[in-house]
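User: Hello! My lab partner asked me to get a predicted holo structure for this protein. The small molecule is flavin mononucleotide, SMILES included with the sequence. Please write out the structure tokens.
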Amino acid sequence: MSQDSVTKTIGVATGICLFCSLFVSVAAVKLRPRQVKNQRLDRIQNILQVAGLAGEEGDPEALYQERIQPAYIDLKTGQAVSEDQYQPDQVESIPAEQDLAGIKLRPLQSVVYQRIDGQTMARLILPIQGKGVWSTLYGFLALEEDLQTVAGITFYEHAETPGLGGEIDNPNWKSSWAGKRAYDEDGNVVIEVIKGQVDPASSDADRQIDGLSGATLTTRGVDNLIQYWLGENGYGPYLKRLREER
Ligand SMILES: Cc1cc2nc3c(=O)[nH]c(=O)nc-3n(C[C@H](O)[C@H](O)[C@H](O)COP(=O)(O)O)c2cc1C
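Assistant: Hello! Below are the structure tokens for the protein in complex with flavin mononucleotide.
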């Protein structure tokens, strides 16, 4: 067969394509366990960060096992469920008027994380998610032991534009959440992410967060998801129960 025949060219190209697709498929399958492990480690590190344990020495996994206690809950009733009963895949559709976070489906149960100091809960870490501009934002919001004050926020997965919506990862912006009032004395959600800068002289400054400049849409997405998850259709019933049990 001639070296430059059409048949040979197609044959070589097909061979290369087959080899490459086989290589990519094998790599994807082989690397999957490592990806899953790294995703878990990333979540753990984010939980430790909002739990205020990120600076501690040692293996993050061991620190997590030692200091963080997961609690499984029924979101509607706020009651605890056992780990055996926990079914993260059970979801229901959210009526449009309630779907502040733009997630369409809500889990019936959730896992929250408690930072345990000695015998008592020092921080409560709540998984949060909601629509940004280009992506769903996944993160954690931590409340202090009083269940009213924000301890921290972090997003571990999103695809917002770097420099615009991606500024939700900016450490300065994230640290501005610490100490803000999430709930008032009656358990109403009062925290809000505003457009523009918070006026430090305002009486509302303790419950307001600066909006991200050039990223009003992502800012609005963050505000919406916070309202949703702290509200009646999110962790509201669970937090109410915890407050009543005190
Ligand atoms: C390529 C491109 C990417 C953008 N990415 C984001 C984004 O991630 N988040 C966001 O809120 N706005 C993003 N915007 C800007 C929005 O369209 C909109 O202009 C902005 O949210 C308005 O914010 P401002 O009122 O603070 O100026 C993007 C715009 C362009 C052209």
